[in-house]
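Lay summary. Proteins are chains of building blocks that fold into shapes, and those shapes determine what they do. In this project we predict the shape from the chain. Here is one chain we studied, written as its sequence of building blocks.
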Amino acid sequence: MATDRRSFLKQTGWTLLGSGILISIGSFFPSAGRALEKSLSPELYGFIVDTTTCIGCGKCVQACKIENSVPDECYRTWVERYIITAGDNVFVDSPHGALHGFKGSGIAEDVKKAFFVPKLCNHCAEPNCVQVCPVGATFMTEEGVVLVDEKHCVGCGYCVQACPYGARFMHPVRHTADKCTWCYHRVKKNLLPACVMVCPVKARQFGNLNDPKSAVNRVLKQFRISVLKPETGNNPKTYYVGLDKEVR
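And here is the predicted shape, written in a compact code that computers can read:
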């Protein structure tokens, strides 16, 4: 699901607000349009991951662990390394979620290309996890952030199974569902998510989809973007630049 935004945006412009933005984004990129249609808030957040600049250093994973007290061997965000050989074999690894970066691959075949793909909760506009929760513990804020109310979560794990991105896990101590929150506690204080703050190459961007001048919209205007598993119909609000067809 890749789309060239540049030519379209030249025709439509970004000077309109409200329904004008909905038409320009929504007609061109359905997941953003559906999210905007549902949003009653001036803020509707989106996230950009640029796979062409990620260096797999793991600083994002480290920052997330510290900021959110994520338990050992659990990850709210992680980085995968993709190696495609001359024979078109695809190797994927993510040692400890890339917490300490990556070492040599040990692959004997000639490598055609290699790249890193950061992953996290996609904060979908049509999230399966919200639909399957039997007690309403998984919900979406007015800004489009999908959260878990741990006081109401009964630990059934339905949402973990329903997420097609593998972005959820059961907290080993609290026995409730856990996942990336886009550091909502920071965002409410006008701070960026921890992973965005520490990325040395700006491979992660976060901002307001309702603001034409936001960091995410600057990227959406300039680059081809994709989402993970578009066929699921979840309409993610985490968008990828340079996403290869081998990524799953």
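What the prediction tells us: Residues 1-28 have pLDDT under 50 and may be disordered.
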